[in-house]
Amino acid sequence: MNTVIVTGAGSGIGLAVATKLAGLGYNVVVNDFNESAAQEAAARIGGLAVQGDVSQEADVARMLEVCIAAFGAPTHLVNNAGHVHQSRFVDLDPAEFDRMIAVHLRGTFLCTRAVLPHMIARKSGCVVNMASQLGQIGGVELVHYSAAKAGIIGMTKALAREVSKQGVRVNAVAPGPINTPLVRALSQEWRAAKAAELPLGHFGEPEDVAETVAFLCSDAARIYVGQTLSPNSGDVML
């Protein structure tokens, strides 16, 4: 049976992904920085909750230990944990920049590094990294967020070249603006301006992204490696 760790799965896209994969029969380990959110999500989908900060090596190690004890080594990993903060670049505090990189880029690195040896040993595995269309085109007052997400896209491509022949598929998803608590934390002015730019004229829903993740996790995506799929309301067209 497939076993997946979904980070940042207490709400938003992560919760939608966890719900979708649980419905497909996966054993789901629900990670979130917020313990009560993780527990509520896990109870809702019949998964296993593990609180933890993905930027902390000890928390990541504990998350993997809990997964292995309950279900065995994960066959899939969805690096979804996120953080958002809005600031003009000239006002950006280095601490906020560091936290953004820590959650998104360091977190993706630590979680993937933890599970990868098990996948390589099995000669099978799937990693899906949550990027963003802002990692492709940038975003006003979101330079640090855009930089972190661009880093995830670069990491995805490089790692895919490194481990594909060992049976591990690594891909990314770069959503456009999605109706999640993180996006709703941005200013109303930013959200209105962004919606007006979109060819569809509206944001997506977490379930839209979950469908893309589920595809990449499936055997139907067996020749997808190092790719970045973009459910983004037309914000980026490649």
Number of helices: 9
CATH architecture: 3-Layer(aba) Sandwich
Helix share, percent: 40-55%
Structural class: alpha/beta
Give the CA-CA distance, first to last residue. Answer: 35 Å
Query: What count of domains describes the coordinates?
Result: 1
CATH class: Alpha Beta
For this structure, the CATH topology is Rossmann fold
Structure characterization notes:
With 238 residues, the protein is α/β, with parallel strands linked by helices. It has one domain: Rossmann fold, CATH 3.40.50. Helix content is 50%, strand content 13%. The chain is built from 9 helices and 7 strands. The chain has helices at residues 12-23, 35-45, 57-71, 94-122, 134-137, 143-163, 181-184, 188-197, 206-217; strands at 3-6, 27-32, 48-51, 76-79, 125-130, 168-173, 228-229. The protein has a 7-stranded parallel sheet with strand order 3-2-1-4-5-6-7, with helices on both faces. α1 (12-23) packs across α9 (206-217), α3 packs parallel to α4 (94-122) and α4 (94-122) packs parallel to α6 (143-163). It is globular, with a radius of gyration of 17 Å. The model has no long low-confidence stretch (mean pLDDT 96).
Outline:
This protein is α/β, with parallel strands linked by helices and 238 residues long. It has helices spanning 12-23, 35-45, 57-71, 94-122, 134-137, 143-163, 181-184, 188-197, 206-217, and strands spanning 3-6, 27-32, 48-51, 76-79, 125-130, 168-173, 228-229.
